[in-house]
Specification:
CATH class: Mainly Beta
Helix content: 10-25%
Oligomer: single chain
Distance between the termini: 6 Å
CATH topology: Pnp Oxidase, Chain A
């Protein structure tokens, strides 16, 4: 069962935020947090996926789709797959654009840690088709020239920030 961890904020930070019309949440249900984060993920479409192997990290910007907290990434190749063959643990971030000069507290984003599974038409045709359906991709439009794959990510931890909405480094853990 997932749980939520809300950090303890310093009185000084709370005072600064209050002067800027912001009140941070001191409690939230798992369901409310999950709805908020899913809405955030709906409004964005690019993540930065971190993979690593032999202490050499790699970060790749990729488009994603999601179903709940499960993320789906469609890709035809790249060094990330070499890393994922050796290490299924991943981290990623998703952030909305903002201008700190206009609204210093307007940053919205999340960090996610999880485990990746690579699914291809060759290795798991049925699972691959299911992923394409979730992502809204018509398999008939895919060229046979590439070995398309889907990276499916199941998170075990998410840290979310949307200070104006009352979320500052709130953590969801499985």
């Amino acid at each position: 069962m997932p749980k939520i961890k809300i950090p303890k904020y310093s009185p000084r930070l709370l005072d600064i935020l209050k002067k800027n019309g912001i009140t941070l949440k001191d409690k939230i249900s798992v369901e409310e947090f999950e709805r908020e984060v899913c809405r955030f993920m709906d409004k964005n479409k690019v993540l930065h996926l971190g993979t690593s192997y032999n202490d050499i990290p790699r970060v790749t910007p990729l488009e994603y789709k999601h179903k709940g907290f499960t993320l789906y990434i469609f890709s035809e190749g790249g060094g990330k797959f070499a890393n994922l063959r050796k290490n299924k643990n991943v981290a990623l971030s998703i952030a909305s654009p903002y201008d700190s000069k206009k609204d210093f507290f307007g940053a919205k984003g999340l960090q996610m840690w999880g485990r990746a599974e690579v699914i291809s038409a060759k290795s798991s045709p049925k699972k691959f088709k299911e992923c394409l359906q979730i992502m809204g991709i018509d398999e008939r439009r895919l060229s046979g020239e590439f070995n398309y794959r889907v990276i499916k990510i199941e998170p075990h931890m998410i840290r979310y920030r949307n200070t104006r909405a009352g979320f500052r480094n709130v953590v969801w853990e499985k």
